[in-house]
Amino acid sequence: MVSGDRLQAALAALDGADDASALVRVGLLTQRQLRFLLGAREMKNLRYHEVRFGRIVVESGYATELQIEEVLQRQKQQFLRQGEKTMIGDMLVADGTITEEEKQHVIATQQHLAQLQAAVGESAAVPPQEGLLCAADGIEITLSKDKLRATLRVLHPQQGSISLQQVHAMAQEYGIVYGLADDATIGTYLQQVNDASEPLPLAAGTPCTPGHGGEIRYHFDTNPLKAGRVEEDGVIDFKDRGDIPQVAEGALLAELSAPTPGHAGTDIHGAPLPPPEVRAKQLLCGHGVALSADGRAARASCAGTPSLSRLGLLAVFPVYRIKGDLGYKTGHVDFDGDIQVDGVVERDFHVTGGRLAASEIEAATVDIKGDVVVRGGIIGARIRAGGSLVAAYIHDSHIEVDGDLQVKREVIGCDIMAGGGFHSPGCTVLNSRIATKGAIIAGEVGSESAKPSTLLIGSDALLEARLEAQQALLKQLHQEQMRLRETLEEGEEENRVITETIAQKAQVQDRAQVEQRELTKEREALLGVGMQAEADALGNQIKTSMSRATIAEEEINVLFERQDALLAAEPLMRQQIETLLERIYHIEQECDLLSAQMAQQQDDLYLSVNGTLYPMTTITTAHTTVKNQQEMRALILRERHQRLPGGGEKWQIVTEPLK
């Protein structure tokens, strides 16, 4: 509203006056601006408590962080546009996000925490999380990390040296009010305590009961990568289709059981302990899959091959058969289904689809939602697959797969990232980088002449790259949404100004028309009495007035055209915002799934080499990296954790013979 220099000058002129209305008196602010600023200050104070309210709502499992952020943004916009100060609790109830009872429970929790803060002082606004609370008057109270247990220990045990009242006073001082041991138990302990006595369990809270988000039961083979039988010569037999699931239209693909809610507990301070937030599972349906109205059953909407991606997306792919090569005769292929190429995917061609089976892939770009199965080899290609990949060999290629890799013969000069494992017991790995979330099983790694390879086991490299890309896209979409909202708000403000301007111009036009009528009457009267010169002078005034009216009308027409353009653009921008919000929602879901997958710990991470592991191979696990210095044969490498005598810890990679 004002520049810093103007503000400083005004403050100097006021000479210490601390009444905000003085800023109006010196002309720095209007009365309306002052009212807005005072309301904004009140709103800012309110928002501090509202954010804490929202945090308790999330911790209680009543709503998600996204829902709270959305309602806080709406609250802010309502204040900025209309000056309304609506509580988010009332807004959440009105939206149906929480019930009135849940709102009152959150308010009670917020009040309890405020009382506790007042009781223990501002410096201890939050009760200590764990450890020693106090050691005074010969008493020591210790609190567990989860705030579910408090123990009492007498420092210098002497019969009758500590009274029951002292214990109660100290417990009250530190807000221990729930689950206290009864007086008889405390009194008996105090009378019988000695140097050998164990601490007394002074208070015990009630732990929360976790819920679960439902269970999904699939009615087809979700991991078929037996898509073709591997023959002894390394060629995959695509005629052996017994392992490929096929479904008819309407077939039941998956069912989801109902989620079970958790139940809150109570800590020893009397505060609620919400159960861990349970993400309700969902049946995610892609191409060829229809979800029931209740969201509990997924069925095939067409006949074809069912698929389940690493991130849980169900799809059914129809079949597109190419009897020769995928090349100049076919062009690039974009088919949201099962693409079967009898021949080769040729150099520089692009393939996008649901699933791909081919004889070979030569320097092509492949982006597939499901599995990629190659009867022969892959050379110089870039492949992105949402499922798993099977090939006889891979040379000089960049591979990203959400699932597992199976390679029959060799991997040479490749960069491979997998959300699953590398299960290729007969494969030789040369001069390659392989990063997998799961285990790596290979035949041989390295040779006497090849450049060394790098193996990353338990790596989230693929997921991190995907998450980073999606988060970047999310940021871009949020910025675009904000730009559209700002443009919309600017348009609304411009429309308001135009309406006021049109009213002003219309008044000019009306005054000019009234003036014309009055001047015309006067001119006619002058002409009637023969006063030609005076009548001509009035004629010139009439022309000037008519000119003002004409200019005003033209300006009004221009303003109406601009207003029409603004009104016409508004629905389109609102639709664009809705589309962006939908995209943002789906990308946020995918980010959550990626984060959840990254958080999953693999039960058994290891490198298994059936043949020879050559020197200088770099092996990286979650906590350590080694570069083997000698040739080793038929072994398994695992990461092991060791506690040191001084209390520290050490991670190391250990080897064991392959059984």
What report would you give on this structure?
It is a single chain. This protein is an alpha/beta fold. The chain folds into 4 domains: 4-123, no CATH class; 127-204, no CATH class; 214-261 and 281-420, no CATH class; 468-599, Helix Hairpins, CATH 1.10.287. The protein contains 10 helices and 37 strands. The strands form 6 sheets. It has a 22-stranded mixed sheet that branches. A 4-stranded antiparallel sheet has the order 1-2-3-4, with helices on one face. A hairpin with a 2-residue loop joins strand 1 (131-136) and strand 2 (139-143). The longest helix is centred in the C-terminal third of the chain and has 68 residues, at 461-528.
In a few lines, what is going on in this structure?
This protein is an alpha/beta fold and 659 residues long.
**Mean pLDDT over all positions:** 83
Task: Give the termini separation.
Answer: 77 Å
Number of strands: 37
Shape: flat
| Main sheet overview | 22 strands, mixed
Alpha-carbon Rg, integer: 37 Å
